[in-house]
Amino acid sequence: MTQAIGDYVRLTRLIRAPRQEVYDAWLNPEVRSQWWCASPEMKPGVCTIESAVGGQYRIGMVAPDGKEHIVIGEFTELSPHDKICFTWTWETNPEFGGNSRVTIELFDATFEDQPATELLLTHERLTKPLERSDHTTGWLGCLKSLGKHFADLAEAAKA
Description:
Elements: E1 2-5, E2 8-15, H1 19-27, H2 29-35, E3 43-49, E4 56-62, E5 68-79, E6 83-90, E7 100-111, E8 114-124, H3 129-158
């Protein structure tokens, strides 16, 4: 499900990994730097995360032209394996979606009798249509990269 109405974007995805691993993928800088990209043409960039309420993060992705797009913010709520809330401001373009808020909610699920996670992402306070549209595209790419990250790990484990 994808919604981009009002002042928010809401996406739901099934990730083929246990909830604890998906939660960790968002907060562990070593893991996040393996998958954080909005498209296959981009590469992960800077990744610093202080995973505590009030902790700061600074995460980037590098475009094919070499320009790094960096987002910064602060964690406002962390409920282990269930919920992650954080503020969101583009360091490289603070006016675009600045002072918005992202909530990641994780729920137990199964896929082919294996543990999986239903992920619900809500990005609020996106007041302009272009902000909602561009952030929807970016989040769809990031969630696809997250799913691919876990699919690649599963393939490597089979080998």
